[in-house]
Amino acid sequence: MSVRQAVRPGGRSLRVQQAVHAAVGELIAEVGRDALTVPQVAQRAGVTSSTIYRRWGDLATLVSDVARRSLRTDCPIRLTGDFATDLAAWAEMYQDEMDSTPGRNMVRDVLRGWDGTTAACALLEAVRPVVETILTAAGPPVGLSADRVIDAVVAPVLMRLIFADAPLPAGLAREAALRVAAVARTNVPPS
Amino acid sequence: MSVRQAVRPGGRSLRVQQAVHAAVGELIAEVGRDALTVPQVAQRAGVTSSTIYRRWGDLATLVSDVARRSLRTDCPIRLTGDFATDLAAWAEMYQDEMDSTPGRNMVRDVLRGWDGTTAACALLEAVRPVVETILTAAGPPVGLSADRVIDAVVAPVLMRLIFADAPLPAGLAREAALRVAAVARTNVPPS
């Protein structure tokens, strides 16, 4: 029952992860998220089901892990240090990424397994470091928390992605970013 | 194939709807959303499957229709005509309603059937009339569209409901409402 096994660091661990991630991607394309099972994934990846349960806990967590890694929500842009410029550039990239077919598929796949109570996946935690980096690069505090920025920029993208017909209005996230940056500017004494 | 049947207005139509809605609610509680089928619903409601397909098109639309009707997203408050006061009062009620067990279950059930492209359900269309009523009651235009208000107030509630761990911060929607109202005030010349 409670056989404990040390996590093996290094090469094998990474190879298992890559094989399992690849298997999930292939099988979702072949049979769809709803028909996916842990034994199928294990067989395709050449590992045991217990390896998958030990590492990911359950299928929903595994699918969500795979989906998140396949998307770029980090910051590929060179930061200028101007909060409005940087946030708008990132917001535009974020909207493009999420409103793509892989982005929508990721959100859809994650939501199929949502329990209605705990977070469906770490989508917000994935953007927080980028938002904090942009806030920090702006130099003096701009009077906004990462949460406020995420509510203002990320929330409309995700809400409309899910609850409005596609595609999103062009510039939705960019304009939200510029608006929240303008509010921030009025909060900060000019340097 | 193309047998057309006139929709019968009045009593029978409403009774069918009530029976089907009740059947969906009972069966979701008993077998869960994932196991729900149209023939099951039809049998429980005492109608034929083709009645359900004719009226709702598919199971996802039916479930979403049932879910939306079970929630209050209209405006039970007496409007004062002060935009900030009215929007904050409604926002608080909206958050309470959505962050309840029935609210979360509704969103979860709707998202299970989401195709990733078209709107998962008419959740935003359901709030738009209320938001427009509040905007109109405020008298002179407050310089905000219903879309902007929905992005500012509804989006953070829905996004955090889905992608953050429960429960939502108290006052999330109310504070968002007060912020968007404060921005609006600076857009409008004092009367």
How widely separated are the two ends of chain A?
A: 63 Å
**Stretches of chain A where pLDDT falls below 50 for ≥5 residues?**
1-9
The number of domains of chain A is: 2
What's the β-strand tally of chain A? 0
The biggest chain-chain interface is:
A-B, 32 and 32 residues
Shape label of chain A:
elongated
Order of helices and strands of chain A: HHHHHHHHH
Mean pLDDT over all positions of chain A: 83
Q: What is the gyration radius of chain A calculated from CA atoms?
A: 20 Å
Total helix count of chain A? 9
Q: How is the biggest beta sheet of chain A arranged?
A: none
Question: Main traits of this protein?
Answer:
homodimer; 191 residues; mainly alpha; Arc Repressor Mutant, subunit A; 65% helix; 0% strand; disordered N terminus
Written description of the protein model:
The structure is a homodimer of 191-residue chains. Helices cover 65% and strands 0% of the residues of chain A. Chain A has 2 domains: 11-69, Arc Repressor Mutant, subunit A (Orthogonal Bundle); 83-187, no CATH class. Chain A is mainly α and 191 residues long. Chain A contains 9 helices and no strands. The interface between A and B is medium-sized, with 32 and 32 residues.
